[in-house]
Amino acid sequence: MGGSGLCVRDLSVGYGPVRAVRGVSLEVPEGTVVAVLGGNGAGKSTLLRAVSGTLPFHGGAVTGGTVTLDGRRLDGLGPGRVVAAGVSQSPEGRRVFARMTVADNLRAGLLGARGGRPARAAALRRAHELFPVLAERGRQRAGLLSGGEQQMLAVARALMAAPKVLLLDEPSLGLAPLTARRIADTVREINEQGTSVLLVEQNAALALRLASRAYVLEVGEVTLSGPADELAASDEVRRRYLGVVDEDAAAAAPRPRGALPALSRWEG
Ligand SMILES: Nc1ncnc2c1ncn2[C@@H]1O[C@H](COP(=O)(O)OP(=O)(O)OP(=O)(O)O)[C@@H](O)[C@H]1O
Ligand SMILES: [Mg+2]
After folding, report:
1. Whole-angstrom distance, CA of residue 93 vs CA of residue 77
2. What stretches of 13-162 show up as alpha helix (H) in DSSP?
3. Nearest to 28 by CA among 5, 55, 51, 48
4. Which among 13, 44, 203 is the best mutation to test ligand 1's pocket, defined by most ligand atoms within 8 Å of the CB?
5. Tens-digit pLDDT profile for residues 228-267
């Protein structure tokens, strides 16, 4: 069971009596980008926390199901051992260590990482190549970086452990469209270098452009899944997550003077 890649089977998660994720199954085959879409409170962050072993920090626990990487169980492991097994997370809201320097933030990403000095040096080189601004600002306190730069730092920090699978929780949140696009380009580059990505996003347009497959999460359950291009074309996703109004209904309805044509809300 499990095969290669990251495999979530029938996962349920609770915060005390609150059941935040219910019977969720998904797969991130080796080398792919997979997106999870969903509105506020759908359970996206909870899903990533369950994979990364960080649920206990939030008062949550896995109540059922399994998480495996290349067939090996990850559920039940602490966050350091999940990192060692090859899965790193860039958490929601960036969470860089504001008082620490950029360089020390990157070093913090090595906690739990395998490999000796050469592997660490290579990881730092890769982070600096992907995000040159982090090399320029290495000695500055992370709290002084812009929002976009802090997001870059959060992604780079997660990459320091050279994960097989990178978990990204809303990397575009709160960023201007141009910055969000730069982050998206870098996520694609990271993937092309061989790292699988599980990308959680409210920005469905951005996520569906990057991913080969996507899952829609609603109130803790997967309600839709499939190839990203098919989901992007589905009425349901277009209406609910891409902000596209129903063109036929819109065309049939009397249009107030000066009304705008159907709009795509996201530009990211
Ligand atoms: N630490 C917590 N303690 C108790 N309940 C929580 C906790 N974190 C999340 N929840 C609840 O679990 C459910 C899923 O929340 P989660 O943060 O996973 O959603 P999300 O899809 O990431 O939402 P958003 O897009 O707003 O980040 C929500 O009902 C939320 O209120
Ligand atoms: Mg969230």
Report:
1. 24
2. 44-52, 79-85, 102-108, 117-130, 132-136, 147-159
3. 5
4. 44
5. 999 999 888 888 887 766 555 555 555 445 444 443 343 3
Is the CB of residue 202 below 6 angstroms from any atom belonging to ligand 1? yes
H helix or E strand, kind and range, residue 200: strand 196-201
Residue 18, ligand 1, Cβ within 6 A: yes
Tell me the average pLDDT across 155-159.
95
Give the residue whose CA is nearest to atom 3 of ligand 1. Answer: 15
Give the Å distances, CA to CA, from 103 to 121, 135, 145, 163.
12, 8, 13, 19
Q: Is the CB of 56 under 6 A from ligand 1?
A: no
Domains of the chain with bracketed CATH: 1-86+195-268 (3.40.50.300)
Amino acid at 124: L
Q: Whose C-alpha lies nearest to ligand 1, atom 9?
A: 46
State how far the Cα of 33 lies from the Cα of 206, in Å rounded to an integer: 12
Shortest-distance ligand to the CA of residue 40: 1
> Cα–Cα distance between 203 and 242 in angstroms, integer?
8
CA of 89 to the centre of ligand 1 (A): 17
**The total number of residues written for the chain in this structure:** 268
Q: What is the pLDDT of residues 8-64, one digit of tens each?
A: 999 999 999 999 999 999 999 999 999 999 989 999 999 999 999 999 999 999 999
Dihedral (CA of 229, 231, 234, 240) sign: negative
| Token pair 């109004």: residue | 245
Give residue 252's pLDDT.
Answer: 58
Nearest to 203 by CA among 53, 22, 39: 39
Residue pair 34/197 in contact (Cβ under 8 Å)? The answer is: yes
